[in-house]
Amino acid sequence: MNPREQQQMNETLNTLQQRGQIFTEQMFQAKEENWKLEDLCKERAKEVKKKREDVKQKAIDLLNLHILTPNPAYQRADGLNPTKLADINQRKLVSNLEARLNKALIRNATTINESNAIKAKIDKLRQKRMNDNFNRTSLEKKLRKLQADLDVVMETAAAAAEQRETFQEKKNQLLSDNIDEAAEFNEAYAQLGKYIDTQNELLEKSIEKAAKAVKFDTATNDDVDTRGMLSVSEEKKKQQDIQLFSATIREQDKAYRHTQQKIEEYKRDFADLFAVAGSTDMDEIATTFCANEDESFRLFTHIQTVNQETDTVQQQFEKLCADIQAYEDEGRSKERARVQEKLELDQGVVDAKEENRQLMIQAVDEQKTVMNIAKRVSGLFYKINCESLLEGRSSQGGGLAFLNGQSVDENNILQFMGVIEERATQIVRDHVKSLAQQGAEGQRRRKSISLTQSLAGSMDAAITGKPVALEMFDSDEEDDDGDKVLTRDAIMNSVKNTFEVKGLSPKRRK
Questions:
Q1: Nearest alpha-carbon partner for 424 in 490, 338, 474, 371
Q2: How far is the C-alpha of 374 from the C-alpha of 44, rounded, in Å?
Q3: Of 340, 360, 380, which marks where a domain is finished?
Q4: Phi, psi dihedrals of residue 226, rounded to the nearest 5°
Q5: Which pLDDT score, from 0 to 100, does residue 470 have?
Q6: In this structure, are 337 and 429 located in the same domain?
Q7: How many angstroms separate the CA atoms of 1 and 341, rounded?
Q8: Rounded mean pLDDT of the chain?
Q9: pTM for this one?
Q10: Does 56 share its domain with 140?
Q11: What is the DSSP letter of 230?
Q12: How far apart, in whole angstroms, are the C-alpha atoms of residue 337 and residue 30?
């Protein structure tokens, strides 16, 4: 791998790291936006709950505001329709929630589009990484092949170097051995030549002396062991020396022939070396071999450096792959968390809609209850002849004269119940007077208490709105219990109990 490819790989790795950092920051921003949206939803839910409680409290306070005042201006204050206002407020709240839901859906779609774009970039980078892996694998194969070839070259060079060193050592050893053997041979040859010359001279002298002795010797009693100037033992010794010198000469000839054979072998080896090198100059061959050795060592050093760089790049690549895998895992976990948060928000919206629907159903039920109570109050109003009391008020200019000729609804029900209470009190008082006139005080007291209790029971039954208790006012053909008196305290307690049963217990203003 050359430095340019390594630089390109480093630039690619840096680009991937920067993009991974950008994706991580975008994920954190999306998560922060989800947190902000969740906090905003919680705040809006608190505001909605607070507004709902305020609307309920205002409706209760509005119902209880100046119910019996003679001033028409204050009486018109009770003419507001709390149910209608609550419906309007709920519609506004639903519209607000729908608008927020649309914004959240738009933000969700934007986030999905951004996620798809990020996924496309990740796929593109993954494809590029796969291509880089393929290229890297190809380069590794080429590098391994090159390393194998270099190993063969290095092994061949090492074997050639070993053979050269061996041949050089053998050459030096042979040269030194040949020089020593040649010196010894020349010295022995010179000594042997001198010895032969000496022996030849001695032999010639001994022959001459022997000849003279034979010619001039007249004595017959000489020693037979003495022939000439040498004795027989000396002559044998000289013969032994001559045999020894002959053996030595043969050994020297043999060593000489062996040396000549080695020289011939070396000549053939040098001829092969010259043929391989293409030159007959030993200095040039030695220079070429040293240059090849230096080139092999430089190439070996370069291979080691490339291996180290390859190992470093491999470690960096593995680390980058691990970081990318960690980023992908983190991104998937954050994506699952974001999807879970979105599902929770969607479930919250669905719950809010369901709560709104339940409130609408509850409001309709309350409206039906109010209308049912108004129907029973109207029947009771006409049963106990309360219109005569309103006619008297009209002639006197009373504050409740405006009820004459009107129907009972949620706006004026409390005024009608006040008239019913007053009429019931009047009936009880007239009944007590009639009993007093009859002189049955004990019996009258018991009947008055019984009548008062029965009127209170009918009043509670009319206010609670329960089906069993409201059936006694379904028609004008019912029993005479419809003539019983309703008290305002009982009506107020019944209204409070109704709100508590429906889960709308109001809070008093501070």
A1: 490
A2: 37
A3: 360
A4: -115, 120
A5: 35
A6: no
A7: 49
A8: 73
A9: 0.28
A10: yes
A11: E
A12: 11
